[in-house]
TrEMBL record:
Any single Pfam family the record assigns to this protein: Glyoxalase_3
Alphabetized InterPro entries for the sequence: Glyas_Bleomycin-R_OHBP_Dase, Glyoxalase-like_dom
Protein name: VOC family protein
Domain Glyoxalase-like, residue spans: 5-197
Lineage: superkingdom: Bacteria
Amino acid sequence: MAFAFDHLVYFTDKELNDHIDALKNQGLYASLGGSHKNWGTFNALCYFGLSYVEFLAVENEQIAQQAKENPLIGQLLRDLPDKQGPGQFAIRTNRIEEVKLQLEKNGLETRLLPGSRKRQDGSILSWKLLFITNHDSEDKLLPPFFIDWLQPDKDRETDLRQKGIIGSHPAGNLKMNHLSIIVEDAKKTSSLWQDWLGLSAGTGYTNEGLQADCAVLELEGCELHFCSPFGEGPARDLLNTKGEHPYELVLSNGLNLK
């Protein structure tokens, strides 16, 4: 089954325009997305082709607290303000019902939800979300969620460009290279996700800066690099303070977002 990296969710309690300005200073184009009225959140977006970073913030605390059916909103509320930054990511599919059945055959419990957002121009964007709901604990890496945009990729990209949501980066024609994910056991976690998603394994390596050994899974739009500490150092410190979590998005020009 074909999968692609859809977007990284960056949890924040800062002003969204502050993120847009910071990205602009790095040569990146970003824009306000809109409001999720049923979830009490709103976002800003920075696209690299059809893969993007979503800066997600609480717009209405009362509504967000009541949006318990959406695991992403629950995680956002738990993580803010202490765990701002990359928090979760979505994998794109155009066969979300088939993905749901396949995951359940593998013994996973799932929840399928409709999603929508009011854009800046007043139009309504709709999609479907699929979450894996049985996982170990809050300090373990949460499984990614899945998204189906209910329209062909080419049509969606054309629409996003016409609306000015996808724009040209002053820094150049950039793509996502990889997402580094801090975990306790890179081989075990990557093998588990490989079984779930049917992804191919890439060549592992040592990240000296993190003091971590990394296992690689190949995914269209952005590779997944699972990194576990081999001693004391930044990776171990991150595990101790934030648990297993997405850590850093690296772009094709070497720029990182974390």
